[in-house]
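User: what does the whole thing look like in 3D?
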Amino acid sequence: DTEVTQTPKHLVMGMTNKKSLKCEQHMGHRAMYWYKQKAKKPPELMFVYSYEKLSINESVPSRFSPECPNSSLLNLHLHALQPEDSALYLCASSDHRKSYEQYFGPGTRLTVT
Amino acid sequence: GNSVTQMEGPVTLSEEAFLTINCTYTATGYPSLFWYVQYPGEGLQLLLKATKADDKGSNKGFEATYRKETTSFHLEKGSVQVSDSAVYFCALIGGGSNYKLTFGKGTLLTVNP
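Assistant: Here's the predicted 3D structure for the full assembly of 226 residues, as structure tokens:
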């Protein structure tokens, strides 16, 4: 099973709202990732968690706040977003102890109004 | 740093035609190479991978061979189907980081019946 699940599938929020995106995997992977993908572009790495600790932050604005409550779950808390933050947000996981391929979830389509 | 260059397309083929999408890379050391596919409205799916020189990755009729001498990882399929219509991303990981996927810009493939 190589499934990564994400909720919600779609999200519309105003610029003053607070919302959260959720990601879950049960493959025993200890690395989890958040990516942002704009239309017709490849995904851009935002954050990496390794063993539930933040390992990489690609200079993401503080209005995006990641959280890794346990080895299976990854959240992305959103606050005071801008319309240009509208995008597809992808979660991924990998077992980087064995190999490096990352498995992606279906994404959350976020629209900021 | 690492980089991936792939033909941008779009590529339009008739059903049962032969497909080649070129991908070349720049990286230090011995990266792992991947092809991901993204169907409309979905996340990325790992299509195939190769981890060392001369490895051939294959899946669902698609193949790609890790060519270190030409730093290439071209994707091929002998007979495409309408259901293969998607965006294809060439990617690599390595060269000092086990977490950062470097993507090409993606190639949109449309297969007509």
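In plain terms: The longest strand of chain B covers residues 86-94. Chain B touches chain A through 22 residues (CB under 8 Å).
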